[in-house]
Write a structure and sequence with these properties.
The complex is a heterodimer. Chain A is α/β, with parallel strands linked by helices. In chain A, the strands form two sheets. Chain A has a nine-stranded mixed sheet with strand order 9-8-7-10-6-1-4-5-11, with helices on both faces. In chain A, α2 crosses α5 and α3 packs across α4. The relative contact order of chain A is 0.18. Chain B has two domains: 197 residues, HUPs (Rossmann fold), CATH 3.40.50; 117 residues, TPP-binding domain (Rossmann fold, 3-Layer(aba) Sandwich), CATH 3.40.50.1220. In chain B, the strands form four sheets. Chain B has a seven-stranded parallel sheet, with helices on both faces. Chain B has a five-stranded parallel sheet with strand order 15-14-16-17-18. In chain B, strands 8-9-10 form a three-stranded antiparallel sheet. Classes of the chains: A alpha/beta, B alpha/beta. Chains A and B meet through α3, α4, β7, β8 and β9 of A and α5, α6, β7, β9 and β10 of B. β13 of chain A pairs parallel with β18 of chain B.
Chain lengths: 257, 349
């Protein structure tokens, strides 16, 4: 077998450290002039793909892929600075409702990417921190009929066998499957590297192919209509107590003890 | 005359449901009677997982009949146990050891066959590791856009869910024929597990091949209440400084209260506590009567997992820590003094 062809789909999201605000019209979260970055779980995916290569697993290519507005190009450059070989950007128009993608639409796009790029392994984040859906990887595996290992905290590749330890309620479980397969990453999988300046410069020369939704076949339009987006109900401000006795009596007063 | 008209409405609606092409279901009161929900229940070693029953509660709120589904070896025994759960009309079971580990590669085709046979309009499961892993695969096979981790139901096609780590609440309306949904357990308390009288029926088993092999598992053993459903939770963060201190201070406090133990991501990443104890956006969501935390600053990702708790109490030495903005009771002080003192005083009561 020639080297693995790894596909790493990534997403541009509001930076995890930013507290999101709901817009005035209550239609969405305010995204204009808010710091964005690569979804943290996707950094883990890129890192894992690069580490597989560094661990001498034969990897012939790491392809980073995203669908998103023009600015999403930045995260593809970051991915290439971390070690991805090339990338594809499906440019969508933020203002055009028909190009608003949901996990099912993304999974259908990725199904076609996998087929045209002859991918052996897809590594995705377990969830994006904006929509918190946790769906795309599983949907893709279902559409392809491939094995899936979600919430991976350890990945070993030997020949065409992959052993994955995944985080489940109450502990971990280990699965074994043959390539091709889909893996989604969990926080404990690795510690993503920072892109060094020389690598950032090199990434500027790596190929970045631009596409649009029209380059893919099918209907990717949204099935869910957003009725409204609101702020969660605020918690009532509490009190500070002086000492442990004060805490116990206050908890009793509130009926918590 | 009048009833004939009503029947034709029903027939029309039924025909629409049977179509395989995606069509928009019209809002019609006649339709609500056809609504039927499949609640996918989890089992572990032949025992029903009670926390997965939130799907039954949520199904009940939809208004139609609620049918339970279990699969695995001893499926019939689990089905008989589940038949006592209130709110279930029927349990469909499949008795086959191939489904014991809930691997989506064969579990998804199994469910799809049973969904097609039963003509269900809504498929619900808990937003647990099992539900998160399995349901999107089913949604893809049925060409439906799943709705994850709902916290409320506003109508048969309209659901409420948190996004951005709970910093925004979104209401969505689904245009899919079959609605695939995972529910947040803390938002739908499980029904009584006694007193129900559901019928039990064997489901279809397509016996799909599973290309994935389950090798082993390593689950944290604990006699304490389950974190996801505990009445009280005590949780520790980076402020505990080491695993030794975490183990010295938190378990006695938990025992004094009869509480489950949780941890912040910082504590888990630093190796103070097991991964499965993590509370937050990427860990567990909890909503106990009392959430008592020590040495946790209160980052938004952590708050996402616990801010629906009834009462939040916090001990932190930094008076400006964000946790105090959500805490009902806050104590500024060194946790290495305050936690043992609190443990002693609670024990002596």
């Amino acid at each position: 077998m020639s080297g693995l062809r790894i596909l790493v789909p990534i997403k541009r999201v509001i930076d995890y450290a930013v507290k999101p605000r709901v817009n005035r019209a209550q239609t969405a979260v305010e995204t204009a002039s808010v710091k964005h970055s690569m979804n943290p779980f996707d950094e883990l995916s890129i890192e894992e793909a690069v580490r597989l290569r560094e661990r001498k697993v034969p990897v012939s290519e790491i392809l980073a892929w995203t669908a998103g507005p023009a600015k999403a190009q930045d995260i593809l450059r970051t991915a290439m600075a971390m070690g991805a070989d090339r990338s594809i950007h499906v440019v969508t128009d933020e203002k055009d409702a028909s190009s608003q993608l949901e996990p099912l639409g993304v999974a259908k796009l990725l199904q076609q990417v996998v087929q045209s790029e002859k991918t052996d392994l897809v590594i995705l984040g377990k969830q994006s921190i904006d929509d918190d859906a946790c769906q795309t990887g599983q949907m893709l595996a279902g559409l392809l009929g491939w094995s899936q290992a979600t919430q991976a905290s350890k990945v070993d590749v030997e020949g065409d066998m992959v052993t994955v330890t995944r985080e489940v309620d109450g502990g971990v479980e280990t699965l074994k499957a043959k390539l091709p397969m889909v893996i989604t990453t969990d926080l404990r999988l690795n510690e993503p590297r920072y892109a060094s300046l020389p690598n950032i410069m090199k990434a500027k020369k790596k190929p970045l192919e631009k596409k649009t939704l029209k380059d893919y076949e099918g209907d990717f339009s949204a099935r869910l209509k957003t009725v409204k987006v609101t702020e969660p109900p605020p918690r009532k401000g509490g009190v500070k107590v002086e000492d442990v006795d004060g805490m116990i009596s206050k908890l009793k007063e509130l009926g918590a003890l | 005359m009048f009833s004939a008209a009503r029947q034709s409405v029903l027939r029309q609606a039924r025909t629409q449901l049977r179509r395989t092409q995606p069509t928009t279901i019209p809002q019609s009161s006649a339709l609500s009677r056809l609504l039927s929900t499949l609640a996918v229940l989890e089992q572990r070693e032949g025992k029903l997982n009670v926390s997965s029953l939130a799907a039954v509660t949520a199904g009940g709120k939809l208004g139609g009949s609620v049918i339970g589904f279990v699969a695995g070896s001893g499926g019939k025994a689990v089905a008989e146990e589940a038949a006592k759960v209130q709110g279930l009309e029927k349990i469909i079971y499949v008795d086959n050891a191939a489904y014991d580990k809930g691997l989506p590669e064969n579990y998804a085709p199994l469910l799809v066959e049973n969904i097609k046979k039963g003509g269900f309009t809504h498929i619900l499961a808990g937003h647990s590791a099992f539900g998160k892993n399995l349901m999107p695969r089913i949604a893809a096979l049925l060409d439906s856009q799943q709705i994850s981790d709902i916290i409320a139901i506003e109508g048969e096609d309209t659901f409420v869910r948190p996004i951005y780590a709970g910093n925004a609440i979104m209401t969505v309306q689904s245009t899919d024929n079959t609605k695939i949904i995972t529910v947040r357990g803390t938002a739908f308390p499980p029904p009584a597990t006694e007193g129900g009288s559901a019928t039990v029926e064997e489901g279809v088993d397509p016996k799909a091949e599973c290309p994935t092999e389950w090798v082993s598992e390593n689950l944290a053993k604990s006699d304490r209440p389950d974190l996801g459903s505990a009445e009280k939770v005590v949780s520790g963060g980076r402020g505990l400084k080491s695993k030794e201190e975490f183990d010295r201070l938190m378990p006695p406090l938990a025992d004094a209260l009869g509480a489950a133990i949780g941890a912040s991501r910082a504590a888990v990443d630093s190796g103070f506590a097991d991964n499965s104890l993590q509370v937050g956006q990427t860990g567990k969501n909890v909503a106990p009567q009392l959430y008592l935390c020590a040495g946790i600053s209160g980052a938004i990702q952590h708050l996402a997992g616990m801010k629906d708790s009834k009462v939040i109490a916090a001990i932190n030495k930094d008076p400006d820590a964000p946790i105090f903005q959500v805490a009902d009771v806050g104590l500024v002080g060194d946790l290495f003094d305050k936690v043992p003192e609190l443990t002693e005083k609670l024990k002596s009561q």
